[in-house]
Amino acid sequence: MEPPMHGKANWRGPLRLFHISDIHFGLEDPAALAFAKHCIDVERPHAVALTGDLTMRARTHEFKAACQWISDLDVPVTVDVGNHDIPYFNLYERFFDPYKRFKAVAAVIEAQLDLPDLAIVPLRTTTRAQYQRFPWSNGWVTDHALRHTLAAIDALPEGTRVLVTCHHPLPERRERDGKLLTINGTKTMEALASRKVMAVLSGHIHDPFDLVEQTAAGPLRMIGAGTLSKRIRSTPPSFNSIVIDGPDIHVTARNLEHVPTRAMQLDEVPENALPPREPGEPVSPVGTVPLVDPPVY
Ligand SMILES: [Fe+2]
Ligand SMILES: [Fe+2]
Q1: I want to staple 179 with a disulfide (CB 3.0 to 4.6 A). Which of 93, 162, 174, 277 is the partner?
Q2: Are the C-beta atoms of residues 226 and 237 closer than 8 Å to each other?
Q3: CA of 89 to the centre of ligand 2 (A)
Q4: How far, in Å, is the centroid of ligand 2 from the Cα of 82?
Q5: Cα(55) to centroid(ligand 2), Å
């Protein structure tokens, strides 16, 4: 059976979405968070998509602060789980109840948002453990997670535009040396491209990007958001303001430093959020690389 086609013209005007990521309570940037909150309060986007890493180490007090910040947002919200949101020290919880600490915002975790002619569909890329490697901070789209997301997309009414949200960018291999990034990323991107998904929104990298990945089933747009924490990689803290106008998507990387969007965006997806130290590692044009690696605790 042919997969359903999404993207038919039947739209009621532009939709505005704020794509926020990696707020990392525990090492949050209060000024950047206040800026994002102010923009949400004043501009009232149709929705906020938070693509994971709400905390630094999934500690109870970090979750409490993150959940409070999310609860105070007076617009529809969907939240993906990041690798930093799974208990690190408490192994019992990590394996048996990894999402317990999200309780206060459980209703918005991996929740599909249905806006006029547009659906925001989550895809889980985090896992409790990975037998292929250690540490387990990079992404893995399990067959179960992929099936779940594809079933949600296939159940949408014909003509619905689709955005997919997840924490990890989906490229499976690093361009520079072929290093394994997100396990099953290639087949996931191909499946999403075959369903004409408009874009995949992700976090984890702490620098924004807006790239097109070529798959066997056609192109797939990959949009990454920066961080609102002090763990910066090569750009000042930022979030994405996304306008969906018919079949078009316009992305602005909003930041307090007034850096233009193109100077904020990477042209290649790196492995993680660590500041670039080696020659050849992707750096944003603005190049705000911290001299010392930000703390991880
Ligand atoms: Fe992060
Ligand atoms: Fe992450």
Answers
A1: 174
A2: yes
A3: 17
A4: 5
A5: 10
Q: Distance, CA 169 to ligand 1 centroid (Å)?
A: 12
Cα 10 to ligand 1 centroid, rounded to whole Å: 37
- Ligand closest to 80 (CA) is 2
Of all ligands present, the nearest one to the C-alpha of 82 is: 2
Q: Report residue 183: phi and psi, to 5°.
A: -65, 135
| pLDDT, tens digit (0-9, with 9 covering 90-100), for 109-126 | 999 999 999 999 999 999
Element (H, E) at 94: helix 91-96
The answer to whether residues 172 and 229 touch, using CB atoms and an 8 Å cutoff, is no
Handedness of CA 131, 91, 50, 135 (dihedral sign): negative
What span, in angstroms and rounded, lies between the C-alpha atoms of 155 and 100? 29
Q: Please report the domains of the chain, with CATH numbers, ordered by start residue.
A: 15-263 (3.60.21.10)
What distance in angstroms lies between residue 106's CA and the mean position of ligand 2's atoms?
Answer: 19
- DSSP for 144-184? HHHHHHHHHHHTSPTT-EEEEE-SS---SB-TTT--B-SBT
Q: In 3D, which of 68, 78, 8 has the Cα closest to residue 45?
A: 78
- Could you tell me the distance, in angstroms and rounded to a whole number, from the CA of residue 53 to the centre of ligand 1? 5
- The distance from CA 116 to its chain's CA centroid, rounded to whole angstroms, is 22
Write the pLDDT tens digit of every residue in 5-15.
Answer: 444 445 578 99
For residue 273, give the ligand nearest its CA.
1
Closest ligand to C-alpha of residue 20 is 1
Least Cα distance to 122 among 211, 205, 192 occurs for 192
Q: Which pTM value belongs to this model? A: 0.93
Q: What share of the chain is helix, strand, coil (3-state, %, to 5)?
A: 25, 25, 50
Q: 22: CA distance to ligand 1 center in Å?
A: 5
